């Protein structure tokens, strides 16, 4: 398929055949050279800036978008031949007197120092295979993938599921799938995901007018807005009447299969927005905020200059505690104390078991308290472009609901569970997706390396279960066989604040929150926490939606 840049075609770069990639690179190089030569004479004029900060010559003929994409390929393509040739094309353009872009930011995450992430080109064979799969499917190796690859087993399942939802046979057309992704990500003002899917939506032939606002999209998609809103913020309010409205509205009605596809996409992108903010994912190099054509500033260390080797900012970010000074002794004590609590809880479990009444009381207490867990900080959330045009009712959110002291009803897993009910419903109406989701849930829940910070051979199942059940507890979901008293023993306040923020209002997550919990743990362990948050949140949303669909059907 041809890109919007006209004759510049990128699809050949996704091939696993080196000869096909080489031919595509030659074609791209020639097309860029032709465009550059039409701009080059103008470039001799003293440089002037357009209002958006781009050099005027680079902005002509769509050249700036092409150069930004080449910059991304030179840094992020898993195939060395593509990286090297992209860099050579950029150098050729620069030799014509045209300013080329340079990356902004410092690696795939604002929270994790770049030197602690996997560098493209230095990955092992397993990771390279995942990178190649991702690039072949999407035409890019995105920053989410570069952070998730801390956990290759999970990443493989995630990529397989996402590829199926977006690109394989299914009830919804391709442009509907990407538009629903935009609607879902926009609920949390996640401009990172919105930008990616705007590009994908246009690439598969979506109507640009729809991007001017939800009111410009077909009525059928507009009707999905209410479900999107409730799923993202208050899924316990979804009833079979909401489902009926979508399925019965004359010419704009959804089929059951289409609705299941849409619900899975909405929950996927709500939870992926949580991961994006929870791990501080940086803008993609070729997207807005990921590159600049401005010359590097001397006062800013020119940290992102392609050619320099200064890494001063990296050293600032390298501290595991960021702006929160804490002694290593204190952090080590934190880990030891947590391990001791796990040991004591296990001993208590073995000695006595609380009554069912006491277990129910502890759940209700934890659910009530979770509604009022909030950060005392008044920090700015990550700067985002206004994406509110992609959804309605911007004032609707989780926080407003809890402030009014309204009650979240209890959802008993014994009455409706993913394993016994949701899985089979999804698989029946959207074949194979139930299986893919089930694998992904199980990998996230069971994933362990038997380590905790500097300790090895540790059984972390108790801690993982506490995190998962705390998230479900915030959504009113109760497991009758779990003692919710364990949550307060294992999750301290700073950790609860982080979990609540990432799951319920991810756009408010800050680096300080990320730094302030589990201060002696590895970044890979904090990413692991985020995988639990992603999957527990997605399953919670799905349970409410699928229960409503089941009630409608019976």
UniProtKB/TrEMBL annotation:
Q: Which InterPro entries match?
A: AhpD-like, Sestrin
Q: Name the SUPFAM superfamilies for this protein.
A: AhpD-like
The GO biological-process annotations, alphabetized, read as: cellular response to L-leucine; cellular response to leucine starvation; negative regulation of TORC1 signaling; positive regulation of macroautophagy; regulation of response to reactive oxygen species
Q: Determine if Isomerase is one of this entry's keywords.
A: no
Reactions the enzyme catalyzes: a hydroperoxide + L-cysteinyl-[protein] = S-hydroxy-L-cysteinyl-[protein] + an alcohol
Please give one Pfam family short name: PA26
Molecular function GO terms recorded:
L-leucine binding; oxidoreductase activity, acting on peroxide as acceptor
Cellular component GO terms, alphabetical:
cytoplasm; nucleus
* Entry's family note: Belongs to the sestrin family.
Q: What is this protein called?
A: SESN1 protein
Identify the coding gene.
Sesn1
